[in-house]
Design goal:
single chain; 306 residues; alpha/beta; Rossmann fold; Beta-Lactamase; 2 domains; 6-stranded antiparallel beta sheet; 9 helices; 56% helix; 19% strand; rod-shaped
Length: 306
């Protein structure tokens, strides 16, 4: 524990020496000053727990000193030494909140020791109170921070669920792949931090973005799509990421992301669920694309049987 200091201010050197002797064995760090000006200099360099000052001093009296000391060391417990003739000055200082207690002259060593001990106890209580208030304020700030974070998480999760419901509704209503891309592409754009996102359908050989179809020469990923179909692995080529859209081992197409500001490792769980729904949408699309040919083949077989 840091040594607590007592500042004694009196213009009489004999009084300072006597008070030093009275408090020498109390375990406090003692500072002495023979004037208010000197005492203010000491307060500028030391943290003082208790100040004991004479009232009547030449130049700056005790009341003026304590008033100025209040600005330099507001937490210090302040006491005065006074004669009976100074009682009006003392009461005025007490009423203005600068002085906690006064000791009358002549003083007794035991009275001074008890007064200083009581002042130290008050100082410790106030310091502990301030420490607890500071800790409580920090805890409250942390609580607000975590509350806001939890609220953001709930809002984010709610938004994600709403997006999933929107995409699933799109599927259940039988929207084509182009309409589905109009719904899902803005979500991918937000996740990856780029407006350059498109979806290649292997069944149609067509690329889609949020606005509709994209010609293959604009997408510039036909050769890499072939590689995705062969390797079934993510491909990173300069500023482009090509992510295969799979259903079991079937490659349905690929998500093409360019100029992304968010890496694939940082896009979060939303990406996985959106990709799963995209896989379902593309699987439905494959069935729509292949069904006419399948029906035609079945009709040919039936005709041959007849």
């Amino acid at each position: 524990m840091m040594e607590r200091k007592v500042l004694i201010v009196d213009d009489e050197l004999s009084v300072l020496k006597a008070l030093e002797r009275a408090l020498r064995k109390e375990g406090y760090g003692l500072l002495t000053a023979e004037s208010g000006e000197h005492a203010l200099d000491l307060l500028s360099g030391y943290k003082v727990a208790v100040i004991l000052s004479d009232i009547n001093m030449p130049g700056m009296n005790g009341i003026e000193f304590l008033s100025r000391a209040q600005h330099l060391s507001p937490d210090s417990i302040k006491m005065v030494l006074s004669g009976y003739a100074d009682i009006d000055l003392v009461m005025d200082a007490i009423n203005h909140g600068h002085v906690w207690r006064y000791l009358t002259k002549p003083w007794q060593p035991e009275d001074v020791r008890v007064a200083i001990d009581n002042a130290m106890g008050l100082y410790d209580v106030r310091a502990e109170r301030e420490s607890l208030l500071t800790a409580l304020e920090i805890k409250n700030q942390q609580l607000v921070k975590w509350s806001n974070k939890l609220e953001d998480m709930v809002d984010r999760r709610t938004e994600h669920i709403q997006n999933e419901l929107m995409l699933m509704t799109c599927l259940m209503e039988g929207c084509d792949l182009e309409s589905f891309c109009g719904q899902v592409m803005p979500l991918y754009e937000e996740l990856f931090g780029t407006a350059d996102v498109s979806l290649f359908s292997a069944a149609e050989g067509t690329c889609y973005n949020r606005f509709g179809t994209v010609s293959m020469d604009v997408c510039q990923c036909a050769d890499m799509v072939a590689q995705v179909q062969q390797d079934k692995q993510l491909i990173v080529d300069n500023n482009q990421i090509l992510i295969p859209v799979l259903n079991n081992d079937l490659v349905l197409g690929a998500l093409c992301v360019r100029n992304n500001t968010v890496s694939l490792e940082d896009v979060g769980q939303d990406y996985e669920s959106y990709m799963a729904i995209t896989s379902i949408a593309m699987l439905h699309n494959v069935m729509k694309v292949n069904t006419p040919a399948m029906i035609s083949n079945i009709e040919k077989v039936l005709q041959e049987i007849e």
